[in-house]
Amino acid sequence: MSELSEVSALSELVEKAQKLDAADELRGKRAEFVLDAAPGDPAGPAGVYLDGNSLGALPAHVPEKVADVVRRQWGELRIRSWEESGWWTAPERIGDRIAPLVGAAPGQVVVGDSTSVNVFKALVAAVRMAGEGRDEIVVDATTFPTDGYIAESAARLTGRGLRAVLPDDVPGAVGDRTAAVLLNHVDYRTGRLHDLPRLTAAAHAAGAVAVWDLCHSAGALPVGLDEHGVDLAVGCTYKYLNGGPGAPAFLYVRRDLQDRFDSPLPGWNSHAEPFGMRPEYRPAPGAPRGRVGTPDILSMLALEAALDVWEGVSMEAVRAKSLALTDFFLECVEAYVPPGRVECLTPLRHEERGSQVALRCDDAGDVMKRLIARGVVGDFRPPDVLRFGFTPLYVGFADVERAARVLGETVGA
Amino acid sequence: MSELSEVSALSELVEKAQKLDAADELRGKRAEFVLDAAPGDPAGPAGVYLDGNSLGALPAHVPEKVADVVRRQWGELRIRSWEESGWWTAPERIGDRIAPLVGAAPGQVVVGDSTSVNVFKALVAAVRMAGEGRDEIVVDATTFPTDGYIAESAARLTGRGLRAVLPDDVPGAVGDRTAAVLLNHVDYRTGRLHDLPRLTAAAHAAGAVAVWDLCHSAGALPVGLDEHGVDLAVGCTYKYLNGGPGAPAFLYVRRDLQDRFDSPLPGWNSHAEPFGMRPEYRPAPGAPRGRVGTPDILSMLALEAALDVWEGVSMEAVRAKSLALTDFFLECVEAYVPPGRVECLTPLRHEERGSQVALRCDDAGDVMKRLIARGVVGDFRPPDVLRFGFTPLYVGFADVERAARVLGETVGA
């Protein structure tokens, strides 16, 4: 591109960003988050945070809530808070706050433990639901690694085989030996969105239980768990749900399967009568059956407060803006980044795209370091992927333009 | 007791409490905790909190630390905190802070997940260490229920049998079929302290792996994990370690067993190269092998700050004061409570006593409600147990005298 046309592209894209921001129905949400100026680029505008798909930004009202939990609920009420501050029922209460964001009716989602631990619960329970005759677990070959490791453990402990299959190949791979299929809704590396309705139907057609990992879709796009008949799902709350570092994960068990949910981690919190202190285990009905031990209250109540930002937000609006953001980012990258310098790994078709853009380049690790030094924060996934997440609640189009421009300057230099 | 001798006993015990408090070498620690006046008894002195064996009181400096974690580490540094704020290494760093409190050299304790989840990891790993020939898990028949439920699940998933045995009977019950023995160091209900060295030796003599639950002993008395050759141990951090509601539990794996620790929850945080994102699982060496998924940072760093109160404290001093507190409580109960009104379930012999006193009476639930209304907070364990925990760092002898006196007034009325 000539110098003149570069200037023209720049001013056009800056102008377009302004128009898109002005028309953005979610733009008011940005003020609900803490988004300070980034260090490393003091002369520039505020930093651009495109890593909300790894750790969501801080909702501005959360510190005050956490301070109250620590000072008053723990410090003053102490043990009485289990009842008086609603600590005991927090896992299912917060689950019901997450439920509408993933298309679930109340009473089917419970919060607690890490994603990995919930994958374990879900997968062992799925194998048990499928019954003795089915001797194989099918796992997404492109999965975030922890799901694969945990699936291997679940297979070993339940005496099943494990087979890694590309999501596209699942319909042809499942059969009457398949007990459960564990799939990622959005690929953590490429940002590819998989076809949840079609793959769930394929698992069901084979008589298998469909387990979905929603880590990269919960809070980013409509999931429709109930609508599409998903059996079990897990997801994290510290990415697009902004619950805070290591906030507890969630577990969805479809209502009509709850009585058959046979947890491999039957801790006392999942007992029908947890304070009965009985030596015999008798599982609670409903979502609390997915609980295990004492929940981590500080992290959990920070998450509860963080969920307030979803008040009045429709997931359809989030999805529309998410696609507009990633479309615009790709347009800006094309304008600012020298041709051939990066390769887009994220599908261009909307129906195959999550809320992130992954760009491949050989020196991705080094490029991301330089971007971060200039206030554009994405992340690097070895060996060669630049990953940019777009959180519709707080990322604007001017951010997107600036990030692509800084990327162009960084890789062009 | 006549009215006159009642008055005399009262003044003698009040005076004795004053002398004991004056001579208490740990008395300075009390000021490091938040111990406000209890509601419900505005005319009386500050409330007496005897439930630190369920939820420890708030160390006064913790709120400021948590505020910094939320506002600066999460709010400003965001994703960079995994490295810059030491989030990533927190589980093993905090494990090393707990290690000396349970008699472990560094590098053997890791923090994360709930106690129940850690019992599961430890027990399945123990069965795997014991090898194929051993087909039975022995579990404490008086255990806190969650350990029993989880042991049953571990037995089912590893194809072993489960046998409940009274701790005293363990030496005669274990044999060459025993894979692992899971015992509670202190009985949650009665406060009875079990003989860890002797029972560990008995398990070892049978070739079994000894797994200890330290929930009611960690922070209350010397445990001596390394000294007594314990194989695996788990414990909670929100009781005598004052880590906050639902603070993550800890897992100890003796150094020479770490390479054989084969976790049933091999999440990505326990991978030798967690950011390599490899499909094959390869376990990390050392304590991090006990990790699973992303740790709950808010709860974990609150715990880290809370552990500062142990600076300069010897567990021997804690134990000496703990026994003096429970001795004095029993003395005051004898003086103030009508004979036969309550029955002490806690052993009188020091070597069999933890840091709590359990009193049985038919109307225990009702009695505890009335005690709490008067600012004396213990807890009720169904069907008929009043449980009082004595945390030597912040409970004084005047508290003890007052608690027993209010108890006497409550049950005598």
Brief overview:
Chain A has 413 residues and is an alpha/beta fold. Chain A has twelve helices and 13 strands.
Overview of this structure, please?
The structure is a homodimer of 413-residue chains. Chain A is an alpha/beta fold and 413 residues long. Chain A has 2 domains: 155 residues, Aspartate Aminotransferase, domain 1, CATH 3.90.1150.10; 223 residues, Aspartate Aminotransferase, domain 2, CATH 3.40.640.10. Chain A has a 7-stranded mixed β-sheet with strand order 2-8-7-6-5-3-4, with helices on both faces. In chain A, strands 9-10-13-12 form a 4-stranded antiparallel β-sheet, with helices on one face. Chain A has a two-stranded parallel ribbon with strand order 1-11. In chain A, helix 1 packs antiparallel against helix 10 and helix 5 packs across helix 6. The first copy, chain A, is globular. The two termini of chain A are 15 Å apart. Chains A and B meet through helix 2, helix 5, helix 6 and helix 9 of A and helix 2, helix 5, helix 6 and helix 9 of B.
